[in-house]
Amino acid sequence: MAENNPSDFRVYVTPASPSTASNCSFKPQTPSFPASRLHLEASDIIHSLGQSSVFEGPALETDESNVAEPCSKFGRYLKFVCIGSVWLLFTAILMTKSEKVNKMHQVSVSGESSTIFEIHNMPSRDVVEVTLEGSIMPQYYANMSDRKMTLWIEQHFEMPESLLSDRNFSDFQKRVSTNWTVPLVTDSLIGVVPELVLSTVFKLENFQRGNIAAHLFIRMETNVNTSLPVSIGYDVSPIDESDGTIYAVLVLVGLYVLIIFEIVHRTLAAMLASTMSVAILAAFNERPSMTELVSWIDVETLLLLFSMMVIVAILTETGVFDYLAVLAFKITGGQVWPLINTLCLFTALLSAFLDNVTVSLLMTPVSIRLCEVMELNAVPVLMAMVIYSNIGGTATAVGDPPNVIIASNQHVKDSGIDFTSYMMHMSLGVILIMITTYLQLRFIYRDINDLRIQEPHDLTELKHEIAVWERAAASVSSYSKDEDAVRETLLKKVRRLASELKVRMKGANNVEENYKKTLEELQRKYPIRDGMLLIKSGFTLVFVIVVFFLHSIPQLSLSLGWTALLGATLLLVLADNENMEGVLARVEWSTLLFFAALFVLMEALSKLGLIAWIGRQTEAIILSVPNENVRLAVAILLVLWVSAIASAFVDNIPLTTMMIKIVTSLCSNRVLNLPLPPLVWALAFGACLGGNGTLIGASANVVCAGVAEQHGYRFTFLQFFRVGFPVMLVSVVTASAYLLISHIAIQWH
301 and 628 in contact (C-beta within 8 Å)? Predict the structure, then answer.
């Protein structure tokens, strides 16, 4: 901008609730936001300058909020002291503890004789972790080769020269651990196949710690016919899993306390928890390197989220979400429950064949606009929508990430479970769960007024308009005098609207619900704004969805993340939008950062032993059942409920990765004689349905909450918990009955 002339500025924003009072324009590179179209005219600037002294507090501050502040001064100080202390603690640990360096040593093992490798340091406890890298066969292919390597730990004692001739060498060495058997590739594939890394923790038995003449050795034997090169490393002070599990639970509880009581924003809570978990690893001398930390982040998921957010941001400019909302209003005749049912069923159907995170990104803006058209409270409708999204994603092998992990397991494939059988066994149960969920939601919201906005519609629109103006003001930087002037003008506009809101709220206490807009008014108010951009966006969206459907074809080397990124790039090229900053401003960066922190946290908790502890307890209970007739029923119920409850509070991706190993291990135990398919269905139902239990139980929940918050609708952890957790419990009870009837009564498997 060459000069500071207010009449030259035009701001374009797109609000969640367009209001007739927001008829203004503006034109610097101010990012626009979904759902807002505001114009700031010179008259607005002049008016706001004249009203600058009317309101000097926060934009949405009212008389009520002045009387009861959300946090007392003492509470703020207490929060600062507690969180500051945690920050000082993990900062001190990370400054004093260096990254762990895994030293690997090259050795050669021959089939003709065993090889020993000395452990130079004495273990601090009776455990030693050993890492092996080489031509190792993946566990699920172990039956394809009879080649193997056996490792154990021995303690050798120095022999006095006087006893060399009288005693055997075996008298001065003893085995202090059990065997670890590692499957190897065939002789012809050694040095050809990629090398794998495995590790295990040896528990030392009858181990003499204080003897300075004693030394520990790793002994290796193999039945290969050639020399086998391997890399071996050890750690004499691995994490004590009992202590690690306790610390992991404390970190997880701390995370939920921060989120449930809204002490800090959920993104900051995840950052604090993930950093604290890394600090705990560092305190155990297991601090990961920065490269390893980055590898814990699921870049594929973040790429998918970012790309779909860009596509949705551009698609919003066409007005198609407004149009679809009015169309749904027309089809359902403006009746509340038929409209909600249509929305939820369509979402569930899409989630069965598309990733439910993508479906949430697409359906949340439509649901919000639909609620505004119907003058409904968007929060309960969005919660119902995302609950059905998680239920629908349970039906197929591609609808939810846990299903993808389960269906891609080699043992599951070998048992004859393919896409068709997966969908056939799961779909019937999903239909039953959808019916019970519908009845439960009808009971929860039996008073239709709970679904309606409890305040006059004009006040709701005015609040949303203020929120959009605040967001626009926050997006303007302070790098120059001109930008400061624009920012101040926007803030004055916010103050004027907030003053108007206070005046309206004083006289709105006894106002009845606003009149219902007719269909003709809605169609006139919400047309398609940019037909050409809609065609381009539709073409891009069809490309992305079609490739999503085809991504399971082995010859197609495009993952979901790459497909979404190519679609976003294509749409940016086709749209030819010069205001790139405006598009990027609509990306939910806080949601992406939340997921990144959550990925780090869950991997750290896994390394602390929490996930493995859950698995061991589950396995131990199943193994303790003596009666073979009831063992399968106990196994089904235990796998289902453990995975469901755990998935509500920890990320279901690492949990499913661990639980599928336990399930396949149990079924490979010939003594137990458990069939694999029923336990696979139980794990799939539990891991997917458990995500409805809490706000951060499933990725789709977090995405929906983030998009809704950007549109001015915020629902808390407890709001979601009060609806989602009972729905999750009833859903799992329904799944339990379905699985017991199918696989115990009629033995469908």
Answer: no
